[in-house]
Specification:
alpha+beta; CofE-like fold; 25% strand; 12 strands
Length: 255
């Protein structure tokens, strides 16, 4: 088995309203890549959020009393805390500098995935801009997939990834937050191992495995390569959604 991950060259800085399908078509051509049946394109969350206008100017945010109180406890900007609360179903843990929440999309993450890095917007130097996650990353991935498939005439997968921390381990890794055609889970229960033992509980989070690999190729700072082409993914494409990767709360031993 061989899988090749290639970051697309020449992808421009993305602005609100930009057509990511058209930008991707151009970047594929510049990278001399022709999409094949079963290929996958992995998009960094940031460019999807920017194209969809998910930038927010903190100068326009009025914190609620709850946000102001919590901000004082954890030593964060109350306007940012207000946005975190708006993007969350529940606050799970707090400490100075960090809020761990259940995001409205269902997963657990720090600060509701709101980001300051590599974010810019119009206005004065005093204005601070932050970036929220896409409103519906699965729908965003589906739109990208449909547009690219219509242009190239092949069946592909699309995934949107973000960087998350993990319980019990240091460092962020890439995880899938939006899926279209890319399986999130592959169920190996009932299949034999090398010695004929039938697997009983093994389900592989292949969506997150691929997200981590693509994130490694993208980089996390000033690389400017927010889209990765994947050839040779070892599992068949199928209909998928983020929900299949989210552990039900009744099985969550960390809460």
């Amino acid at each position: 088995m061989a899988m090749i991950l290639t970051p697309l060259k020449g992808f421009p800085l993305v602005k609100r309203g930009d057509d990511l399908v058209e930008l991707t078509i151009r970047a594929l051509a510049e990278s001399d890549i022709v999409l094949s049946e079963g290929d996958i394109l992995v998009f960094a969350q940031k460019i999807v959020s920017k194209a969809e206008g998910r930038q927010v100017n903190l100068a326009a945010v009025t914190p609620s009393p709850r946000a102001a109180e919590l901000a004082q406890e954890i030593e964060k900007d109350p306007r940012l805390v207000e946005l975190i609360l708006r993007e969350s179903r529940a606050v799970l843990r707090t400490r100075p500098g960090t809020i761990v929440v259940e995001h409205r999309l269902g997963f657990v993450c720090a600060n509701a995935g709101i980001d300051h890095s590599n974010v810019a917007g119009p206005g004065t130097a005093e204005e601070e801009w932050v970036l929220l996650l896409p409103e519906d990353p699965d729908a965003s991935a589906r739109r990208l997939r449909e547009g690219l498939q219509a242009h190239f005439g092949v069946s592909i997968g699309v995934m949107i990834v973000d960087s998350h921390g993990r319980a019990w381990r240091l460092g962020t890794v890439g995880v899938a937050i939006g899926l279209a055609g890319v399986p999130g889970l592959v169920d190996l229960r009932g299949q034999p191992d090398l010695f004929g033992y039938r697997l009983r509980i093994t389900q592989v989070g292949v969506g997150d495995e691929l997200a981590a690999a693509a994130s490694l190729v993208m980089g996390q700072a000033a690389e400017g390569t927010p889209v990765v082409h994947v050839h040779g993914f070892p599992y068949p494409l199928r209909q998928s959604r983020l929900g299949e990767l989210i552990r039900p709360i009744e099985q969550d031993l960390f809460r």
